[in-house]
Amino acid sequence: MFSKFEEWYRDRHDYARAWKEKSSGKVFGCFCSYVPEEILVAANILPVRVLGSHEPQDVTEPHLFGMFCPFCRDVLAQGLKGRYEYLDGITLAQSCIHLRQAYRSWEQHVDQPFSYYLPHPMSVQSPAAVPYLREELENYKKAVEEFTGSKITNDDLDRGIRILNENREAMHELYKHRIGPEPKLSGKEAMWVTVSSTWIDKEEHTAEIRRVLKLIEEREMDRECGAKLMFVGSENDDIEFINMVESVGATVVVDDHCTGTRYFWNSTADDMNDRIEAIAKRYVERPACPSKDHPVRTRFPHILKLAKDFDVQGVILIQQKFCDPHEADMVPLRKYLEENDIPCLFLEFDVTVPLGPFRIRVEAFLEMVGEEDLF
Ligand code: SF4
What we know:
By secondary structure, this protein is of the alpha/beta class. The protein contains 15 helices and 8 strands. It has a domain at about 5-150: Rossmann fold. Iron/sulfur cluster (SF4) binds next to helix 4, helix 5 and helix 14.
């Protein structure tokens, strides 16, 4: 049922090359989920989230300090190794210092006709955040127009907003099938869907979700559900890891990742005269990355609500090694969840994860979650 998403997940570069050939359009690499894809889709550009490959590499040492997170080192390695050679442009929406350095090194050492650093407010709770981002998005739109040689009209923006929103709505509908005693899809299948949505043509992706939604109600799962878990933390698209967790008696039913719910959870208003302001509001008000979640930690009640709505028995807190934004949140987040009767397991990720030792810890956690269920 999910084989198309698996294929998209596995053959991401082949897909983008074929899309380019078929549509004669341009492809932009997006560093961070704060890049306003509505504007790119409005300009007939395919946004492709740049992610790592989870393979050991030896090319980033001259560019990035070893104590930068493994995710941004893995991302830069993809560029230096030429895996994204088909990109016509790249954009970073300011998120954290680590990724900014990966972006700057990529910009200098990988040949790309267009690159744009989009200043994005860190203080998204400030009343100045929307007007500030609105101006920055106007500048970005102009830069994209100059690059493509075509004006982006209000009709184009309406199309971009609609296409993104339809995909988000379809993802929400799919996630509803992860609620209840017998989720209709595994966490691995959901990860194929959510992660591939960050680089597949959104209309094609939505159509495939809609096809699945027609069939999923009748689906009989050929695996036991086991303990229902949630993943929370830094970027995570590691299929090997989720496979391991789900092979030892669990199903991952929801997440708070920037390649998961944080990416698609909220929509852009489609009834505002000022389309750029609507897009700015969407990115300011979306579930925040911890780098932007201050002075009030709005993530915590949001994560707790997800945990309760999806009835999880435990949370695996995932942190990319040396990731400062998530590291600052992990201790208070764990305390907050445990005070609300949600058991947690903390794991620190590197480019490749040590599946053996992690398996032992996950199994022990599942035993504890099971025991807690008895009381
Ligand atoms: S938020 Fe964390 S995991 Fe993501 S790029 Fe920055 S340091 Fe790395």
